[in-house]
Write a structure and sequence with these properties.
By secondary structure, the chain is an all-alpha fold. Among the domains are: 38 residues; 73 residues, Cytochrome Bc1 Complex, Chain D, domain 2 (Orthogonal Bundle), CATH 1.10.760. The chain contains 5 helices and 2 strands. It has a two-stranded antiparallel ribbon. The mean pLDDT is 87. It binds heme C. Heme C binds next to helix 2, helix 3, helix 4 and helix 5.
């Protein structure tokens, strides 16, 4: 019993054959992967790249002239004087500056609009800027048409001497 060796047979040619099969499958997978990757970088990747001889910026539309032209800020249309930048900062985030430039108000009128926007439209408290904004608006967007002139006052009336014409 003790000198009996376990009867283990190793099928060497069978093992070699199995290894060989697995190596063949592995190399086919690797070759396919390399081919796939090559196809990807040469065709698909290039498909999404701009043509090298077409500069990307060429398609962008020409930028409009920006800045201050003839005293008017071309971006907002605001008269670029005095405190205009404070007005731009506080008055153009909700609506176009056109609402301002197409409007004419006295200082009181402008203040009324600001109060209305604060009460109903969520305009914030302008703090010290309110006076600066009102200075600007009342100066540059004041009522143009004053209508009839104010009645004359403190006039020294005289009687026309008709005999002088004879
Ligand atoms: C928080 C948002 C907001 C801000 C900031 C704002 N407004 Fe307004 N404003 C509005 C809304 C909303 C209206 C109504 C718009 C409409 O009728 O289409 C309006 C309307 C106006 C109008 C037109 C009023 C009318 O009679 O039709 C003027 C003028 C105006 N705003 C001026 C200003 C000025 C000046 C400032 C800066 C002090 C300012 N807005 C800042 C929200 C705002």
């Amino acid at each position: 019993m003790a000198d009996r060796k376990p009867d283990i047979k190793v099928d060497v040619p069978g093992l070699v054959h199995m290894l060989y099969n697995q190596l063949t499958i592995l190399s086919v997978v690797i070759i396919l992967a390399i081919m796939g990757y090559t196809v990807y970088i040469t065709y698909l990747d290039a498909y999404y790249q701009p043509e090298p001889d077409q500069p990307v910026a060429a398609a962008a539309p020409a930028m409009p002239v920006s800045g201050i032209v003839n005293g008017v800020d071309t971006e907002t249309g605001l008269i670029a004087k005095g405190n205009w930048e404070i007005v731009r900062a506080n008055c153009t985030s909700c609506h176009s500056a056109k609402l301002i430039t197409q409007n004419r108000q006295t200082r009181e009128g402008w203040q009324g609009l600001i109060v209305w926007m604060q009460e109903t439209q969520g305009l914030w408290d302008l703090g010290d800027n309110e006076d600066l904004v009102l200075d600007y608006l009342a100066t540059h967007y004041a009522p143009e048409d004053k209508g009839r002139r104010a009645p004359l006052k403190d006039i020294e009336w005289y009687v026309l001497d008709l005999t002088a014409a004879l």
